[in-house]
Amino acid sequence: MVTVDPLKIEDYGLIGDGRSCALVGRNGSIDWLCWPRFDSPACFAALLGDGENGHWLLAPDEERGGAPLVISRSYRQNGMVLETVFETASGVIAILDFMAMGTETPTLIRIVEGRRGAVPVLNWLVMRFDYGLSVPWVTRLPDNMGINAIAGPSRCILRCPVALHGEDRHTVSRFIVSEGDTVPFVMVHLDSHDPVPDPIDALQALRRTEQFWADWIARCTYHGDHAPAVRRSLLTLKALIYQPTGGIVAAPTTSLPEELGGSRNWDYRYCWLRDASLTLIAIMAGGYFEEAVQWRNWLQAAVAGSPDQVQIMYGIGGERLLNEWEAGWLSGYAGSRPVRIGNAAAGQLQLDVYGEAIAALHLARQTRLCAITDGWRLEVGLLQHLATIWKEPDEGMWEVRGGRRQFTVSKISCWVAFDRAIRDVEKYGLEAPLDEWKAIRTEIHDTVCRDGFNRDKNCFVQYFGATGLDAGLLLIPVVGFLPPEDPRVVGTIAAIERELLDGNGFVRRYIPDPEVEGVLGDEGAFIACSFWLVNAYVAQGRMEEAHALFKRLLALRSDLGLLAEEYDAKAGRQVGNFPQAFSHLSLVNTAAILSAGRITPTGAPPLPVL
């Protein structure tokens, strides 16, 4: 019997095809794969349990003398084909993992290459559909060159040139790979009623996939400082885009914990409006305007409809029903339970999403991603509704579950919504109740400065009447709510430095409070918020501190350049869903700001006008 336990989060690599992603451990085990879409039920779910919940191990066979002495890994040709090299006492092999681009059927390919000597290899496949719950019926293909695994609507077919056999509901092969050998494993996903597709040439698919990623990253126009880190983040973001719609998932995983062993475990396989403008900024900073147009169009389609039904997040196809439930049969990553599928926060009121959506549409208009009038009637409808609700309490940008409050950052985002729309009216002559909007903008600004500012602490606070802080307040000078030299801004940044920095100087979102959050436990430093502090330093002209903090943040990345949501300073590990789009978007944006040496009033580096 062979089983696996989940590795450290940063020990996984990402591969994807624009439809879904898989996480490949440095030990050669694929422990997470939702197929055929990002939000489909996982067929490999060992990441949130153990090997019996589904995994695919392909590595040197330790029981036959193949224990790895050295393991190294990298992305081939700086693309998205993951190469893991195992050095053993008897030789060296490399495993190439990728999800094939350009195939009609979602395809996962693993190729074992013999580099030196002869190495015993173990292939141990445990298929478990429905997040590790359903054991499929496995039969041999008619040509005896692979297997067919089927359970209900789901079906996977594996083809390979080595003999396969069953061991206690596992599919196993043991073989020797010598120098010069190439052994391909090709797995496809299809509906259970579909016919068996023709075999795929693994080496041809490898060349096609490498060429796709090489061509894509060659289009990158960012050549400033830290270009390799920026390019890796852009590649990661591209892999998180659902190609049919242009929606980008916050992460390809669910329930990786913000606290190891805790209950802060959420499903991030959806598209957040909170990320809207930052997504446009980062993608355009890399020169990827086609993806920016797709995201802008996805955003407009997602929020279309009645303004009072705007959600904080949607499915990758714009789906609105994201019901949350718990997979009780999974033990959770590092015992972190419950494992949640779906996200109940989709039903929350978060006023900040209005600011994010309108800021993104404003940015698209400013950079000519769309016609000046495109979507304007939708924006007017959103603002008419926001004018009636901005005074209400909400759950805030961090989706707390302890009840609604008057969160300061939410109100600032409402100000951003009216401010960006007013700018567009004044610049382009768009039809709107300008005087009314200006009056509301002023009222929001006055309300925040009066009720969101604590005079005793000389800083803005998390919510009206509170004494605690919120890292989102770092956005005040970035979005232009107040100038960076304003004493209230200076006091707020100083307070965040005093109260929210961990031992390594990284920023926590806030100090956890069960009464506010509605959940127990602690969390790590929020990586995106730490990038926000870099941006705030730039706004204040504190360039030396900005560069120093950015350098420390880059050091948090895995050996493959990947970032999770948070960093646990005590454990010295990444935590939270992985890889996290918000972290990589923030990295790209901040790198561009540092290269430009300044920040625009919309919180971005200078961007070209198409």
From TrEMBL:
<dbReference type="Pfam" id="PF19291">
    <property type="entry name" value="TREH_N"/>
</dbReference>
<dbReference type="InterPro" id="IPR008928">
    <property type="entry name" value="6-hairpin_glycosidase_sf"/>
</dbReference>
<dbReference type="GO" id="GO:0004553">
    <property type="term" value="F:hydrolase activity, hydrolyzing O-glycosyl compounds"/>
</dbReference>
<dbReference type="GO" id="GO:0005975">
    <property type="term" value="P:carbohydrate metabolic process"/>
</dbReference>
<feature type="domain" description="GH15-like">
    <location>
        <begin position="226"/>
        <end position="591"/>
    </location>
</feature>
<dbReference type="InterPro" id="IPR012341">
    <property type="entry name" value="6hp_glycosidase-like_sf"/>
</dbReference>
<protein>
    <submittedName>
        <fullName>Glycoside hydrolase family 15 protein</fullName>
    </submittedName>
</protein>
<dbReference type="Pfam" id="PF00723">
    <property type="entry name" value="Glyco_hydro_15"/>
</dbReference>
<keyword id="KW-0378">Hydrolase</keyword>
<dbReference type="InterPro" id="IPR011613">
    <property type="entry name" value="GH15-like"/>
</dbReference>
<feature type="domain" description="Trehalase-like N-terminal">
    <location>
        <begin position="6"/>
        <end position="135"/>
    </location>
</feature>
<dbReference type="InterPro" id="IPR045582">
    <property type="entry name" value="Trehalase-like_N"/>
</dbReference>
